[in-house]
Amino acid sequence: MRSRPDTEDYLSIFLNDTPLLDVRAPVEFDRGSFPNAVNAPLMNDEERHQVGICYKEDGQDAAIELGHQLVSGTVKEARIEAWRRFVADHPDGYLFCFRGGLRSRLTQQWIQQAGLDYPLIKGGYKALRRFLIDQLEERIAQSEFLIVSGRTGTGKTRVLNQLPNPVDLEGLANHRGSSFGREVTPQPTQIDFENRLAVAMLKAHHRVGGPVYLEDESRLVGRCALPQSLRERMAAAPLLVLEQPIEERVRIIREDYVVKMASDYSRRDGEEAGWSNFEDYLLSALDRIRKRLGGERHQRLRQSMQEALENQHATGDVSGHDYWIASLLEHYYDPMYDYQLAQKAGRILVRGGPETIRGFAE
Predict the structure, then answer these.
(1) If 0-12 CB within 10 Å is exposed, 13-18 middle and 19+ buried, where does residue 353 land?
(2) Most CB within 10 Å of its CB: which of 82, 154, 239, 316?
(3) Which residues contact 303 (CB under 8 A, 6 or more apart)?
(4) What is the share, in percent, of the chain residues with pLDDT greater than 90?
């Protein structure tokens, strides 16, 4: 008898960050899975493709037989070994395939033959995904939202994460939401982003409760799109406007987009390639807003940025970046933000520095 039964308690799975063994093919996993899922497939992409063709042409029995031929011998042993390692590392987890059918049952059976019992998710990926879609819409409809707004560089994300019940949209999207916002690691797929958001909203409701704090975002955070229903709720929610002096904003931008990003690229790519990729990141981000800056201003800022980069590379001094940062803030980002904020004046609950925003939330 299995020590733990198969489950359809999807809420508990997500609230407890339960480890999940996704036995779907890599192409399915890459399209979208769940925050705590690891891919250890029963069939690789090519094997799945061949079995799919066989199923269409010759039916289920022939497809199953072909699957057993393709995944046999040392291939089968290697797959079982990968599952054994996962089970040993995550004895409290569950496995799933697309619908909780043949692939997860077979995986479960092979694991059992290797001397281990491991439960599966009833309904598989499809049921988990449907649960999250429905729960996300429910939470969006029923939650009270408060929006942390403020000019670029005020440190909104830092303050947001110090509030009682934050959901960090930029963290979930792995992007800081501007031309300069990309991180050294890739963004999640849209499906992965929606799944992460749903899990975060579930935790905000069931684990913490009370108003949910979000950062003021546009429709897209990088390439991840916010659900339309969430955009509509955010567009009507009260605002907490974070204010900081220009000197502090320049310091925050320099720290986040120069010091941290240079370090992240160096850590990922090594010193030489990392520096080259960091330079490209900054310059190409500026180039993306060239039309909106105008040719002359863009050229002046690009020259300043290049000189700052050369000095940083030669001496380690990052203060040379302050000119282009301050100029971008004062002449590009601030006028846009001030115009947008003027349209939202009736929604402002409080405005002030980090202490003021934290004090209001508490």
Answers:
(1) middle
(2) 154
(3) none
(4) 86
A 10 A CB-CB count for 106 gives 18
336: enclosing H helix or E strand: helix 334-343
CATH number of 143-362: 3.40.50
> Which helix (DSSP H) or strand (DSSP E) does residue 57 occupy?
helix 45-58
CATH of domain 10-130: 3.40.250.10
Q: What separation in angstroms does the CA of 216 have from each of 130, 219, 234?
A: 27, 10, 8
pLDDT classification of 1: cutoffs 50, 70, 90 = very low
Instruction: Please give the positions annotated as active site.
Output: 97
Query: CB neighbours of 159 closer than 8 A, spacing ≥ 6?
Result: 148, 242, 354, 357, 358
Q: Which residues contact 98 (CB under 8 A, 6 or more apart)?
A: 24, 28, 124, 125, 126
Please state, in angstroms and rounded to a whole number, the distance separating the CA atoms of residues 14 and 16.
5
Please name the residues in contact with 212: beta carbons below 8 A apart, sequence gap of 6 or more: 143, 144, 145, 146, 165, 166, 167, 201, 204, 205
d(Cα 306, Cα 315) in Å, to the nearest integer? 14
pLDDT per residue as tens digits for the range 18-70: 999 999 999 999 999 999 999 999 999 998 889 889 888 888 888 888 878 88
Query: What token pair was written down for 222?
Result: 């990088």
Other beta carbons within 10 angstroms of residue 13's beta carbon come to 22
Sign of the CA dihedral running 172, 178, 181, 182: positive
pLDDT digits (tens, 9 = 90+) for 202-233: 999 999 999 999 999 999 999 999 999 999 99
Query: For residue 70, what are its two tokens?
Result: 């393709």
